[in-house]
Amino acid sequence: xxxxxxxxxxxxxxxxxxxxxxxxxxxxxxxxxxxxxxxxxxxxxxxxxxxxxxxxxxxxxxxxxxxxxxxxxxxxxxxxxxxxxxxxxxxxxxxxxxxxxxxxxxxxxxxxxxxxxxxxxxxxxxxxxxxxxxxxxxxxxxxxxxxxxxxxxxxxxxxxxxxxxxxxxxxxxxxxxxxxxxxxxxxxxxxxxxxxxxxxxxxxxxxxxxxxxxxxxxxxxxxxxxxxxxxxxxxxxxxxxxxxxxxxxxxxxxxxxxxxxxxxxxxxxxxxxxxxxxxxxxxxxxxxxxxxxxxxxxxxxxxxxxxxxxxxxxxxxxxxxxxxxxxxxxxxxxxxxxxxxxxxxxxxxxxxxxxxxxxxxxxxxxxxxxxxxxxxxxxxxxxxxxxxxxxxxxxxxxxxxxxxxxxxxxxxxxxxxxxxxxxxxxxxxxxxxxxxxxxxxxxxxxxxxxxxxxxxxxxxxxxxxxxxxxxxxxxxxxxxxxxxxxxxxxxxxxxxxxxxxxxxxxxxxxxxxxxxxxxxxxxxxxxxxxxxxxxxxxxxxxxxxxxxxxxxxxxxxxxxxxxxxxxxxxxxxxxxxxxxxxxxxxxxxxxxxxxxxxxxxxxxxxxxxxxxxxxxxxxxxxxxxxxxxxxxxxxxxxxxxxxxxxxxxxxxxxxxxxxxxxxxxxxxxxxxxxxxxxxxxxxxxxxxxxxxxxxxxxxxxxxxxxxxxxxxxxxxxxxxxxxxxxxxxxxxxxxxxxxxxxxxxxxxxxxxxxxxxxxxxxxxxxxxxxxxxxxxxxxxxxxxxxxxxxxxxxxxxxxxxxxxxxxxxxxxxxxxxxxxxxxxxxxxxxxxxxxxxxxxxxxxxxxxxxxxxxx
Length: 855
Prior knowledge:
By secondary structure, the protein is mainly beta. It contains 5 helices and 74 strands.
């Protein structure tokens, strides 16, 4: 009988049923259900003796009845059964491993279970147990599945936790010999490996003796892949799917680098069965939501995980699937159909077993037009627009148009009002400006704007929301000079939010002023202050401005001095800034809680300036200077060069950015923190030019290559030093001047995990009071290779309209080589840097991330 050796078979039908249901609930919908193929095998470590008689060791080098646990890795000398007192007062026995060597790993497997019930080595299984880390930080403990082989040929999966000071890290790894790798993450699930869980989150999952219940599901899928799910308590924390899995092997326990304890180990095996094919959908119906569109709805089918919609020109077919990805809802809109033509539709249901037949009979629908209204001048346009209903399209005939103003015109979320040129670029606004007030869901597209000096604001959105300005061409007229001033798009007023400016070309700005200003509303007497919120600026191209002006010619101004305390929540992403030179600030952020990400700054003289406000993030951007230098034009006599990011205000994060061949210094270094003149951002704020000192800033995982000014801190223009700046996991390489230049002592300045390499004899740092340790800055060459980024032709279509833009279609930069010492070199990978889940190229950071912005 197995029970006399500490192995208990639970023959309870209820327990088997509960375990089967538990595994079924953990499976993905498209996977098969699971049926119990064996009873539960349990190990409580209670039958190996007691304190009075002494304990027998259940672990040996070979599988025997008295030692069912086999020492697969690391020997048996440090394994033993111990006794502790449970809360009820009864003794509780557990297995402990006590070797503290950091290089020593231990695996014990229960091959006795595999011999007595081979299904646990071949089928899907649920393996669970209670695990306690009793050793110091960086001690690992966990569960092992599919273990086989010996020596350098051993293979297995392990789900384990690692003890740290403030958290535990959880790993789900595949081991082949001496090589380990994270199991590829299952789409739509928690991370596959290397996730950190704070201790305060874990505390509710420990039992009264301090054990953490762990569970590992090993699920053999019907497509021959293997999905592994790791739980702590009842929380799914990791999930990975292996397309080249280990299909056989034993279960076991893993320990490394310190004392660990295990108790109440249990395993059950299951067999995956294929579900039945779902029934065809019923009650299919159609509506006509807009021009050239048909919306289909149907009753959901039992057991379906997705649907396909198929279309034909005849009721008899042939029918072709028109959805490019599976449809998970029971509705779908077919668009871009020919108005007046009869189409026929059927719907099928899909799951892991296959696809149902088509719905019957085929449903016919005839898309109808929402005919455009054509206008030839601005008077007609204003009249038609004031009377427009949601879904109306207004087309502008070729010609010149003056500006106009309208109030209270509203489309709807699914039926915006569209104002567009009948022929792209042939309708030109060249006089006074356009203003929408208290309006919503209106789109302006395919229009050319080149307005006279009388138009201070070319397009103004006041108190409006969900307005869109897309695919238009903005440029200065021939009459513009530096004596005139204009803002091309201004967003302001009360209740302004969620406006989108996208895919426009704005170039050759020959007057002062800004491309785009995000503003708000203030009534000082009433104490009312608002800023436009949740606006989106994306996929635009900004290029060629006046040379450096004294002030007020930023490319983008996001906020204003008296509203800096307000959260704008704006996103500026995927834009190109080329030779935007007219102000030290390419983007001037004067509000809080904004995101500047994935933009390309090419040879532009200035910086992204977090000028005032708090809590903004700048990440994933590329700053490419190509060594451009312009002779000095200011009294300081400093040559102008492209810069990176300049920071004032509190709680900003600058990470995952790439800076290359920038020549800016002082104001315009790649990463710049000057002194400030104020530390009192109160409400309301008067319109002042205060430079609020930078505080509590995180600068992490950036790459800086061959810049003249790399990191410059504390330029003494304003007198008050920034505070609490943390530089972590950054890579800096240059031979032009010192990599770190400190001009004013910085209280709370932290360096950690950075990798830097000064060339041509330049110093690593100047202005510091003590040398930097290797843990702060490791001096090493990061080993990088040349790479070319090709911009998307669909998103940046303007770049293919003329050979003039050819130089912007590709960006040359550098990536880490596979042998770079920056690989897996990030510190604090899941602590304060838990926000950095991917690199500048959207590649996920798994396990221990790399230093710098490239994973």
